[in-house]
Amino acid sequence: MTDTARNPDSKAKAMKRLKKRRAADGRFRFYGLSAILTALGALAVLVITIGSQALSAATYHVVNYDITLDPAVIAPEGAGRPEDIGRNVEGFYGLVRDNLLETFPEAAEDRASRREVADFVTRLAVLPTAQMVAKQPELVGTRITLTAPLNDDLDLYLKGQGVRERKLDVGAIASIKGEAEGGYRVTGAGAFDAVVAAMAVAAADLPADAPEPSVLLTAGPSTGRLTEISAGSAHLELLTGKIRDFARLQSKARLIVALESERTISDQQIAWTLALKDMDRIDRVPRTTLLTNSDSTYPELAGGLAAIVGSLLTMLITALVAMPIGILAAVYLEEFAPKNRVTEFIEVNINNLAAVPSIVFGLLGAALYINFLGMPRSAPLVGGLVLALMTFPVVIIASRAALKAVPPSVRSGALAVGASQMQTVFHHVVPLAAPGILTGAILGMARALGESAPLLLIGMVAFVGDVPRSPTDESTVMPVLIFSWSNNAERAWEPLTSAMIIVLLAFLLLMNGLVVFLRRKYERRW
Amino acid sequence: MLQQLGQLPMGWLLIALIAVFGSSAFFLGRMRAERLLMSTTGRMHSRPNYHGYYVAMWATVPVLVIAFAYAVFGETLTRGQLERELPSSFSRLSPVELQSYFDSVRLAAGSAASAGADRVFEAITNRYLELRGLVNAATLVILGLVAAFGIFWGQSRLKSDFRARALVENGMELVLFLCAGVAIATTAGIVLSLLYESLLFFQKVSAWDFLTGTRWNAQTEAEFGALPLFFGTFMIALIAMLVAAPIGLFSAIFLSEYASPTARAWIKPILEILAGIPTVVYGFFALLVVAPGIRSASIWINETAIQLGLASEPILAAQPTSALAAGLVMGIMVIPFVSSLSDDVINAVPQTLRDAAYALGATKSETVQQVVVPAALPGIIAALLLAVSRAIGETMIVVMAAGKSARISMDPTSDLTTITVQIVSLMTGETGFDDPKTLSAFALGLVLFTVTLAFNVVALRVVKKYREKYD
């Protein structure tokens, strides 16, 4: 008989305590689960925010301009050679601007509106077309459709990300009358009820002395600005198009709370953009320029080609240096090294190098390669060498694990039939360990591909507009490009940076996928 | 003629020459060995291929040494001679200016289109090309002679009882050893370069002022008191560890003690994705999402505190970039370092210890808390130390999200700067190596290297000891 059975009182106590202990157990389990969920949740938030941003930058708006390639503008006297045409950005840009002025005659009135309409397209955006025409000179004199990306802020507006607006239904407009001081008086019974209500809601959030928000009224290709709005009538100032459209077509109002003076785009530009959209001259197309253009100061033209090529060149150098040295060092340490102090010192060094902060390698690169050896700054050669020093300890550690996994019977068998130690290792052990060595090397390279800190120190952060052709050209790499873009102030860079991150992650995923594939296919358990 | 030689693509040429010398030496050696094989009655000691390798070794190794010497000293030699020949007006230039002048000369020489530049520049460029051509020609001639002599010498030693294989294998082993020695060379390179530049720095600024000064204004004024940087680094690493240590540890415990094998097989790789994401992505995430979130949260806290009458002025700094944002995101990044290492050590605790605890009636959580974790404690501490060292050395997250103002402030929503942020901002842009600004980056690097090294050495030692205990 035990104590508990004899004393019912203490048994009840024990049961109570057990209950408590079980509850504590449950709580402990819950802590563990919530820790995991927190970590996974953080990962999910990161992926979702960057993914959704990138998705919005995956497409962008381009405007079609039907222009006639007037020889007098495109290939004037004395500058008609193909290479001159390919450089004639001013001429092509002039044609595009003329086309816009033709579409929107009101823009020609004063300098300010000319500048506003010119903002629609960046000068350099016509360069691809200029180069295409230079290659096919027979196009000069014909009518072609030039496609150029829309200004980045207007692009964001059309995507609903830049300037916030509320779209409101407007009732039938009964009459439109011209007013003495200019503009029109539009009336209709209860036509502007929704607008008035929405303005009241918006005004509640604003300080009392805030200026009136912009209200735009759009009908087909025509847009005007509404003021003095009451439920049944309002004053309309025509921004673009024809006044009769408002009588003919169903109108829609847009309420933009942000003040015009604080926006990057004006009401006038919004009106023109909406008109172009209504004329079906604006298309939303995939942003392939992200992979085919090089860096630019204009977000709508910027792409990552130079950085991708720079990354590939850098990785090439890293692979050429780190993989042979790492693998041979691993072979030495695992198969040949005597157990002595030198070997031990090497091993301690390797383990420590794998944990040295990457930026220290950048300092080493700056002092050794650039200052002492006089190698060029910003070059993939130097970047690759710096990353190689960082990567080869990782390669050694992975290769040693792979070599260790080859059973000793393989070695004994080879030695027994008379192979020398060198032959045993290079004819039998290394080939058997090759898949493991390779996967370790690829993982090391993947780490190097995402590294940016040491490269900042050797000058790879410079703006690079040209695709590097050799490892000694000035260049940048993908992670550093992401860093540079994230420093830019304009709002349009944010989604673009996210898109570039997705490109980088795609490369990393590819490398890791290769590792998984190699492991599945060749991994062997002894 | 010399100028054309100066424009040779020497890198590719040298690689091609070494390949040609090596392969031709190999075939010559093998042919000779095969002939020997025909003429001798007995057996050769080594197979013909090894004779080939032997000759190739003689042909390439000295050539490689010369090519390496050319790569390291060729440019310096040319510039040294050119500097001696420069007109006396150039002696006014500082070494940095002279170097950038030579860089532009080199660039102009490479493009071979220096039209439009001034006459002096063009003359110097031409002279530079001539000198380079001289060096190139000399190198090529020496290279050819050495290779020919190597082939001849190697060939002459081949005999039927020549132990070519043993010699080739010894040579190979030496190559392998040298590859392993690169690890020592790298460490030595890091230590020497950091020490050398730091010593130059400490000649200008006293080490004591550097380590204990509280004013850091390296960019504008020459104030090099690094204490605020140490504080910022410590603060951000502390925040990161406050996030990563509990989450990482509890994740490890849950995965190794509670989770089903299937859940474990799924969750573990997903957690390790966190370690594979480039740090610049974390930095962007901190900048885009976390920092604005923390800013609005702290503004809200300020407003509520004032409304409730708890404070008369804002309590939190609520800056757009903050130590808290950088620390939180860094904590997320460090989670897998804590969790996967802790997971390993927890798994290494022998099952018998757990069984004994269960047999005494302990619940699972009691077993974990009172048996498993204490048994695994050294390993867990090592994991935490490695994570701290990772957090201290992390660069991109703090560069993008922590700010640049060197101050000592307990408020986590103010922007603090770290050692790594300052290294980056001192080393980017125009830098000359005689400027105390640049040199101070190396002094900071030395501190960073020493601290992380100490953490790593201790952690690796603990892990090693611990392994021995349960193996």
Walk me through this protein's architecture.
The complex is a heterodimer of chains A (526) and B (471). The longest helix of chain A is centred in the first third of the chain and has 50 residues, at 8-57. Chain A is flat. Chain A has helices at residues 3-6, 8-57, 71-74, 82-87, 89-103, 111-118, 127-135, 152-158, 193-205, 244-248, 267-278, 289-292, 305-336, 341-353, 358-372, 380-405, 408-416, 421-449, 453-457, 478-487, 493-522, and strands spanning 59-68, 143-149, 166-169, 175-178, 184-187, 214-219, 222-227, 233-240, 252-256, 282-286. In chain A, a hairpin with a 2-residue loop joins strand 6 and strand 7. Chain A is an alpha+beta fold and 526 residues long. Chain A folds into 4 domains: 3-48; 59-156, no CATH class; 164-262, Elongation Factor Tu (Ef-tu), domain 3, CATH 2.40.30; 305-522, MetI-like fold (Orthogonal Bundle). The mean pLDDT of chain A is 87. In chain B, helix 3 runs antiparallel to helix 5 (119-157) and helix 11 (323-348) packs across helix 13. In chain B, 78% of the residues lie in helices and 1% in strands. A two-stranded antiparallel ribbon of chain B has the order 1-2. Chain B has 2 domains: 2-162, no CATH class; 209-470, MetI-like (MetI-like fold). Chain B is flat, with a radius of gyration of 32 Å. In chain B, strand 1 and strand 2 form a beta hairpin. Chain B is built from 16 helices and 2 strands. In chain B, 43% of the residues are buried. The chains are: A alpha+beta (526), B mainly alpha (471).
